[in-house]
Amino acid sequence: MTTTEIAVSSVGALALDPTQTEWTEPQRAALAQLGIADAPSGDQLVFLHQAQRTGLDPFAKQLYMIKRWDNQSGGYRHTIQAGIDGLRVIAERTGRYEGRTPIQWCGEDGVWKNVWLDPSRPPVAARCAVYKKGFREPLEGVAHWAEFVQKKKDGDPTQMWATKGVHMLGKVAEALALRAAFPQDLSGIFTPEETAAEEDTAAAPSGPGKTIAESVAAEYSQPSGEPMIGPAQLSEIASRIRDLGLGKDAALELYAEITGREVPVTRLLTQKEADAVLEELARRAEPAEPTGDLVDAEIVDDAPPTNEADDAQQEGGAS
After folding, report:
1. DSSP string of 203-260?
2. C or N terminus of the chain, fewer CB within 10 Å?
């Protein structure tokens, strides 16, 4: 079954037709709920083309278009992303995918290892190769840590890369190998691990519902089966953050510190996590208490007299 046939087999008002050249009205309404209705018409047509070409369903969160700020152009741009599982699905649908090699990592010595066991430092690179029917040798992808590690504005790795950097780099290597093996099907489609996380957090909501960036973050980081933050908690957190004068980066770092995971937007906190955040914000708002290290001391005023009465009193004492 070809990619096009997979797309045709979808049912429902949002089903993609491989022959359509514009989004239908129901599809446009769904795009508005996903937060990308304000994307330029050209970007929306590219998104439609990629959905048709890959057979991935954007309304089932298999394919994403994310709005992010681009410092170089000084404006927003839209990029198309799919999870690593989406890339694997596309590769399998071609009928020419024959698996991959185990992911390997290496340090500065260039020795490749099947498992990275050094917690004190990240690997320098990761590699993976994909087998494709009709090719004599597997097609390899090599990902260098320095090129793909995602960093915060202070230069430190983001929470996910700091705690799961080996796994993240391995997924980048596999994505590179899959794209090298199937360029016609995967060209222009990148995974979140290959793009800058800091830019993802700058995605601006547009229209009702969740933005695509929030959907991506929810899929990769949201705890399943737990009640999410409520409106009252959202309002209180925003108020306390404003009162403390915390910037966006500081707030996100606080979320990551408390939850142990990436939380790009406040709405992705669970109720339990929100309570923990509020407790920490309340603690920071309390006035600092004496440390107990202070000692009593007599205050001696060595300053010279500042008025005539003081001068007279000093002269009388001297006589």
Report:
1. PPP-SSS--HHHHHHHHHHPPTTSPBPPHHHHHHHHHHHHHHT--HHHHHHHHHHHHS
2. C
State the first-to-last Cα distance of the chain, in angstroms, to the nearest integer: 114
Coil vs helix vs strand at 76: strand
Cβ contacts of 166 within 8 Å, gap of 6 or more:
105, 116, 122, 123, 126
69 phi, psi to nearest 5 deg: -80, 135
Amino acid at 29: A
Token pair 């990761």: residue? 126
Cα separation values, 224 from 62, 141, 166, 231, 287, Å: 18, 32, 24, 19, 37
Pick from 282, 235, 236: nearest CA to 258: 282
Secondary structure of residue 157 in the 3-state scheme:
strand
| Each residue's pLDDT expressed in tens, for the chain with a length of 319 residues | 444 444 444 557 788 887 888 888 888 888 887 777 778 888 888 888 888 888 888 887 788 888 776 666 667 778 888 888 889 989 999 999 999 999 999 999 999 999 999 999 999 999 999 999 999 999 999 999 999 998 887 888 988 899 999 999 999 999 999 999 999 888 778 888 887 543 443 333 333 344 444 444 444 444 545 687 887 888 889 888 888 888 887 888 898 888 877 777 787 788 888 999 999 999 888 876 655 554 444 434 444 444 544 444 444 444 4
The residues, ordered by sequence, that sit 6+ positions from 23 with a Cβ below 8 Å of its Cβ are 31, 44, 48
SS in 3 state form for 85-154? HHHHHHHHHCCCEEEECCCEEECCCCCEECCCCCCCCCCCEEEEEEEECCCCCCEEEEEEHHHHCCECCC
CB of 141 closer than 8 Å to CB of 180? yes
The two tokens of residue 76 are: 């927003």
Please name every residue paired with 125 in a beta bridge, in sequence order, or none if there are none.
106, 144
Contact in structure between 158 and 152 (CB atoms under 8 Å): yes
